[in-house]
Amino acid sequence: MSRPHNGSATAAEFPWDQVQQLDYQDANTGSIAQACHAMIFAKTEAKFVSQLPCKAWVLMQMRFDGKLGFPGGVVSDQAIPDTTLEDGLNREMEEELALDMSRFAFSKKHYVVSHFCPKANLILNFYAQEVTEQEFKEIEGNALRAEEYGHECLGIVRIPLFTLQDGHNGLPVFLQNQFAGTSILQVIVGLCTHNLMKPDELNTAMAVLPRHQGYRRLVHQAVASFRDRQQTIRVPDLPENRAVAHK
Ligand SMILES: O=c1[nH]cnc2c1ncn2[C@H]1C[C@H](O)[C@@H](COP(=O)(O)OP(=O)(O)O)O1
């Protein structure tokens, strides 16, 4: 299978490129593997030590390899094939989180963005689903009883979406962990597309990611394409968007 279509092929400067989503069968008939991962989050009024707004609880996991990542996995290598990408994602969510499919099944409406890694010949599809605070706590609790808990998933973590007064501890420090695949990019894209990160916070995040400056272009692309698909979702005022608007 040839390289997936990409609006701006500048992969040389960065190992990942945004691509249009292929369907499950396309991946299975070619040599490209596909993975799906998902962000589950709940907006909250809760405050950290009664002062700092938490904004949202965002679920990630400590993986078996010591890296942080979202629940999910490869969906194109199954002995019994999944029918769709979302079937594959939901199968992974049941295995890793024991997610109740009667209430929280992922579908196309939760799709956010896809990136292709030519080196690994792998497409990484990303989804996000908002739940209530009560549901979030339930999902966290259930995850301890999941089949993969203690194996592929060594723990459930929440992203600290606040920065302490020193301007460093909190989100900036969290972002310096090791992340699997594109998951650090997905964190930022997920927060921006779902209005959980303001432009100044995005700039702080980018400043602490010197190894990942290529993500700035990809965050901009991902937010723009998400906005095109979901007209009703307000797009954060990214610096790049302002530059485009002023042209
Ligand atoms: O959360 C993630 N976001 C993006 N890419 C990820 C994430 N977690 C892992 N990865 C990358 C790294 C691996 O190359 C593949 C497969 O991921 P994994 O979840 O380990 O899948 P399997 O358990 O092997 O099915 O994606």
From TrEMBL:
<comment type="similarity">
    <text>Belongs to the Nudix hydrolase family. NUDT16 subfamily.</text>
</comment>
<keyword id="KW-0539">Nucleus</keyword>
<keyword id="KW-0546">Nucleotide metabolism</keyword>
<dbReference type="GO" id="GO:0006402">
    <property type="term" value="P:mRNA catabolic process"/>
</dbReference>
<dbReference type="GO" id="GO:0005730">
    <property type="term" value="C:nucleolus"/>
</dbReference>
<dbReference type="GO" id="GO:1990174">
    <property type="term" value="F:phosphodiesterase decapping endonuclease activity"/>
</dbReference>
<dbReference type="GO" id="GO:0140933">
    <property type="term" value="F:5'-(N(7)-methylguanosine 5'-triphospho)-[mRNA] hydrolase activity"/>
</dbReference>
<keyword id="KW-0694">RNA-binding</keyword>
<dbReference type="GO" id="GO:0005654">
    <property type="term" value="C:nucleoplasm"/>
</dbReference>
<feature type="domain" description="Nudix hydrolase">
    <location>
        <begin position="31"/>
        <end position="180"/>
    </location>
</feature>
<dbReference type="InterPro" id="IPR000086">
    <property type="entry name" value="NUDIX_hydrolase_dom"/>
</dbReference>
<dbReference type="InterPro" id="IPR054754">
    <property type="entry name" value="NudT16"/>
</dbReference>
<dbReference type="InterPro" id="IPR015797">
    <property type="entry name" value="NUDIX_hydrolase-like_dom_sf"/>
</dbReference>
<dbReference type="GO" id="GO:0030515">
    <property type="term" value="F:snoRNA binding"/>
</dbReference>
<protein>
    <recommendedName>
        <fullName>U8 snoRNA-decapping enzyme</fullName>
        <ecNumber>3.6.1.64</ecNumber>
    </recommendedName>
</protein>
<dbReference type="GO" id="GO:1990003">
    <property type="term" value="F:IDP phosphatase activity"/>
</dbReference>
<dbReference type="GO" id="GO:0016077">
    <property type="term" value="P:sno(s)RNA catabolic process"/>
</dbReference>
<dbReference type="Pfam" id="PF22327">
    <property type="entry name" value="Nudt16-like"/>
</dbReference>
<dbReference type="GO" id="GO:0009117">
    <property type="term" value="P:nucleotide metabolic process"/>
</dbReference>
